[in-house]
Design a protein that fits this description.
It contains 15 helices and 16 strands. It has 447 residues and is of the alpha+beta class. β7 and β8 form a beta hairpin. The longest helix is centred in the last third of the chain and has 23 residues.
């Protein structure tokens, strides 16, 4: 369905979608063009300053991920308050305010028209896993055209939800609708974004298909970033200055992962090998995130080819180390990390400052991930609340935040979302420290 796309047709389809959803802005800074990476991409029509809004987008499909995890929230507003199975027994969970809402009535009628005599209340978890592709059948013809124009990945793993509907739930679905839903599953696999909905202390992980957002190609040092607002709209901004006619890149992976981890994640989830400047640089812009320390001289061991299974070489003494020896070190580190519970701050910090420091550089992915975990333990777990933490721990948290901010700067991440989160944590640390000094009548330092 996607091999007949042209730039002009795709641009028209996306523009009309934005207009229908009141998202289109006259003189917008973006434009859809053919990308040198292949396919299409989003490009800057004019110079865009760091922090500037590029676009807002709305999901054409939003629903649960196909996971073997019970989802106990309203399937319309995703609230966790007073949810119960729909009284008409379609198998979907709803809150009281959404029970009679128009969107659910359409879904409910569709499900009841397709089901046989199987009790869907007992099969609620299976039903919920299939909700995203089912919702595609209720799209308008215009919105179906949007989906048909997005990139898709065909594979044996796609369409598992349709097999659940027909084989496990015994739905009687017309063949054309089955084929369309299988196509939708392949589009979701290629393009869907994870959307986190926060309810008090709990989080719900959804998948959303954002048409314009999905057209932005990937880079491991992107020039744009996205967040989701309270209405689950995607808000995309420039993280650095973007020159006119430059392609606008987002990241499909975690920026604090090293090349090997990012590459494996992208192959598994997006089915491509990234060859951006960061991936091709064995030092990852001088951060050495994927490196280990040489046993001979304590220099940095780096892969001779970061995108292939190959020997590693020390930058200082030129020692060649077989890949299996490097893998053994990472396996050892991984086995230790698996022993930590989420709240094991003391053990994590002890390992970080002890054995780990003898194995990997200071910006290693493992070091970064442990520091990032510690940052969200201190101040947010009951044992380490802001008021209960010692000043030494506040200073430690601040130090780790500043370490990661230095890393983001070396990676050319600009004004990315993680930078904003870390800066806020630094601010909270400083505020608490200064308040304590003020309460103790100490002279305040000048910052």
């Amino acid at each position: 369905m996607t091999d007949k796309r042209t730039v002009d047709h795709l641009a028209t389809v996306i523009e009309q979608y934005m207009i229908r959803n009141h998202l289109f802005v006259e003189n917008c800074p973006w434009q859809i063009r053919s990308s040198p990476l292949g396919g299409f991409g989003v490009f800057a029509k004019r110079n865009i300053e760091a922090g500037d809004l590029i676009f807002r987008d709305l999901p054409v499909i939003l629903g649960p991920r196909c996971l073997n995890v019970p989802l106990e929230c309203c399937l319309q507003c995703f609230s966790k308050s007073d949810v119960k199975i729909c009284e008409k027994k379609c198998g979907l969970l709803l809150c009281p305010s959404c029970d009679n809402e128009g969107k659910h009535q359409g879904e409910c009628s569709l499900i009841l028209s397709l089901k046989t005599d199987l009790d869907l209340v007992e099969k609620s978890t299976a039903m919920i896993k299939c909700l995203a592709p089912l919702r595609s059948l209720l799209l308008s013809e215009e919105d179906k055209e949007v989906v048909k124009n997005l990139k898709n990945h065909w594979g044996n793993q796609h369409g598992h939800e349709i097999d659940i509907l027909t084989d496990e739930l015994h739905f009687k679905i017309p063949k054309d609708d089955q084929n369309f839903m299988r196509f939708v599953c392949s589009v979701l696999d290629a393009n869907a974004f994870e959307v986190i909905v926060v309810n008090k202390q709990a989080q719900t992980s959804l998948r959303g298909l954002y048409p314009l957002g999905s057209l932005a190609n990937h880079s491991c040092f992107p020039n744009a970033f996205h967040v989701f607002d309270d209405e689950r709209r995607m808000v995309t901004r420039a993280s650095v200055f973007i020159e006119k006619d430059s392609e606008i890149f987002d990241s499909y992976s975690r920026v604090i992962w090293g090349t090997a981890t990012r590459s494996m994640h992208l192959k598994k989830t997006k089915h491509f090998v990234c060859k951006c400047k960061r991936c091709l640089d064995p030092t990852e812009f001088g951060t050495y995130m994927s490196s280990i320390l040489c046993k001979n001289c304590r220099g940095n061991l780096i892969p001779t080819n970061p995108l292939k299974s190959c020997a590693w070489k020390c930058e200082d003494c030129n020692e060649i180390v077989p890949l299996k020896d490097v893998a053994r070190v990472f396996s050892l580190i991984g086995s230790v990390l698996k022993c930590f519970d989420d709240g094991d701050f003391e053990l994590m910090d002890s390992f970080l400052k002890g054995k780990l420091a003898t194995l990997v550089p200071k910006f290693s992915q493992v070091v970064v991930e442990i520091k990032y975990k510690i940052i969200w333990i201190l101040g947010y777990q009951e044992k380490y609340s802001w008021k209960d933490m010692s000043t030494e721990l506040l200073e430690l948290k601040r130090e780790y935040c500043e370490d990661l901010l230095k890393l983001l700067k070396k990676l050319n991440m600009g004004q990315c979302k993680m930078r904003g989160l870390l800066l806020y944590e630094v601010f909270q640390c400083l505020e608490e420290i200064l308040q304590r000094k003020n309460n103790n009548d100490e002279k305040l330092p000048i910052y």
